[in-house]
């Protein structure tokens, strides 16, 4: 995905235009799948959903725009490595504090060691010899 998004941004000379096009394509496909799967469930109550759940859309835009801009400059492997490391660090923090309605899973020495190995792995992966 990073290679495709970055390539589109490079060809268009605009990561922002590429991101916009990617969202239009994704939105059209999502709408099609929604209607093919039976449409919006009748039991959905939008009032009962906390507003912060919709922040995921902002994070998706930031990710797509970021990877579309960074991948051609920094390298696809490097960009993906740092994204994965960031997601793992976020996961441990969210789980440890039970943020955003996530199940509480305390930070353990094993999890910290796993993150440390990931940091070393990312360093070894992105390091140019």
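-> sequence recovered:
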């Amino acid at each position: 995905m990073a290679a495709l998004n970055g390539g589109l941004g490079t060809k268009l000379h605009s990561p922002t235009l590429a991101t916009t096009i990617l969202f239009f394509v994704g939105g059209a496909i999502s709408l099609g799948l929604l209607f093919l799967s039976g449409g919006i469930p009748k039991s959905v109550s939008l009032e009962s959903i906390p507003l912060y759940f919709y922040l995921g859309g902002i994070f998706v835009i930031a990710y797509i725009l970021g990877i579309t801009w960074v991948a051609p400059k920094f390298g696809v492997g490097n960009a993906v490595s740092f994204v994965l490391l960031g997601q793992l660090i976020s996961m441990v923090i969210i789980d440890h504090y039970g943020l955003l309605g996530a199940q509480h899973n305390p930070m353990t020495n094993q999890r910290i060691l796993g993150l440390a190995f990931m940091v070393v792995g990312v360093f070894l992966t992105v390091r140019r010899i």
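The radius of gyration is 18 Å.
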